[in-house]
Every structure is written in structure tokens, then in C-alpha cells.
Design goal:
Blueprint (H helix, E strand, L loop, with lengths): L5 E2 L1 H9 L4 E4 L2 E4 L11 H5 L7 H7 L2 H6 L4 E5 L33 H14 L5 H20 L8 H22 L3 H28 L1
Helix pairs in contact: 7-8
């Protein structure tokens, strides 16, 4: 059996500095360089997770089959617990000379007062980035995710689409009756209602497909 390599923080930092897109998923180290241009959600989504534990993001937005297929990009495992790096793209570069962690975020004197004030406002507005606080937040999120999943809210009820289709056909039928009867204002309102329903349904379907 092939021995699994254990990567230290220094190892991961070196890989990222070399330009690799390294993402952590459930303790596994994924090198996603070859997947960047093929990711349905775009390469930026991955680049914003470089150096971070993306376990929750991967599990919530991908099917079990896709998560399983990601094993082809696994190059080893990390020393847990993992403290996230700040993705290079947030520093204004895809391959920086240095990487900072969430707990050592520094303010550059070149950023200007506006950027410094924005950073200060963010720090005051959002929960601290220390490991203990972030671990508590992740725990609450996973508990909520498990509760929603157990109640079946993530499952698509395709029968509801049939109900909506029948409703649309009834509205369109009423439009035809109103049109033939000379009730033009009523016909226009019914046709508009049917069109709005079709557009909202199509947008919802396209949006769901894009997320999947």
C-alpha cells in the first residue's frame, strides 16, 4: 500500500509560493492546478480557497460523486488542526513572495487610509479569526447543515415542477379564452402572468444547474 505523505505548514506554503493551487478537504491536500480551467464555477472560486480548509464549501456545493472524483488530485494529508492561510489572490497576486495567516493580517502603509479603515471596520464587525472562535463557528455551521440535510430540504422535489407547469398551462388557457372573447385587458394580464412565471422558473433552474 502506498504511503501517504504528511505535509507540514511549511510544505504547503512552499507549494503555494511555487504557484500551486493547494486546497484542503477533510484533511487531504488537493493540488487543483489542472482543474482550474475546467471548474464549472470558475477558477476564481478555487483561487479564493487556496491555502484554506474548504471542506464545508466542497461538501455543500458538490455531489458525493464529484467529491469522490477529487481524490485524483490528492497528494497527501496535512498535520491537523489546520490554520488557514490568506489566499494569494487576496493579496493582489496569484503567486506572492510571502504568505500570511489569518491571525497575522497586517496593514500595508501603501494601502491608504481608506483601505486601512475598511480593514479595521471588518475586524470590528466580524468575529475574531483566532482558531478557537473559528472552530466554534464551523461547528455551528456543520450542525445546522446536518439538520437541514436530515429534514430533506436539499432534495429537489421534481413533482412540484409538474404542478407549476399545469398552473402555467391553465393561465395560458385562460389567456386564450379571454383573447377570443375580446377581453383584451384581461388577456394581457394573463399573458404577462404566464411570461413572468416562465422566466422565474427558467432562471431558478439555470441558477440551480450552475451551482451544481
Amino acid at each position: 500500500m502506498r504511503q501517504v505523505r504528511i505535509y507540514t505548514r511549511s510544505d504547503i506554503e512552499s507549494l503555494i509560493q511555487a504557484g500551486d493551487s493547494i486546497v484542503i478537504n477533510d484533511g487531504a491536500v488537493l493540488r487543483l492546478n489542472k482543474w482550474l480551467d475546467y471548474h464549472p464555477g470558475g477558477r476564481l472560486v478555487i483561487q479564493h480557497m487556496v491555502g484554506r480548509d474548504a471542506t464545508d464549501e466542497i461538501s455543500i456545493y458538490h455531489s458525493a460523486r464529484i467529491v469522490s472524483s477529487m481524490q485524483r488530485y490528492r497528494i497527501g494529508r496535512i498535520q491537523e488542526p489546520w490554520l488557514n492561510f490568506i489566499p494569494p489572490i487576496r493579496e493582489g497576486s496569484v503567486c506572492p513572495n510571502a504568505i500570511t495567516t489569518n491571525t497575522t493580517l497586517s496593514k500595508s502603509p501603501d494601502n491608504g487610509r481608506v483601505v486601512e479603515q475598511a480593514l479595521e471596520d471588518d475586524i470590528n464587525q466580524y468575529p475574531p479569526l483566532d482558531a478557537k472562535t473559528q472552530e466554534a463557528i464551523v461547528g455551528k455551521y456543520r450542525a445546522l447543515h446536518a439538520k437541514i440535510k436530515s429534514q430533506g430540504y436539499y432534495k429537489c422535489r421534481y413533482g412540484e415542477y409538474a404542478k407549476e407547469a399545469i398552473r402555467c398551462l391553465l393561465i395560458f388557457g385562460a389567456f386564450l379564452v379571454a383573447l377570443r372573447s375580446g377581453w383584451f385587458i384581461a388577456a394581457a394580464m394573463l399573458l404577462g402572468s404566464c411570461w413572468v412565471w416562465l422566466m422565474s422558473s427558467l432562471l431558478q433552474k439555470v441558477g440551480n444547474a450552475h451551482l451544481s
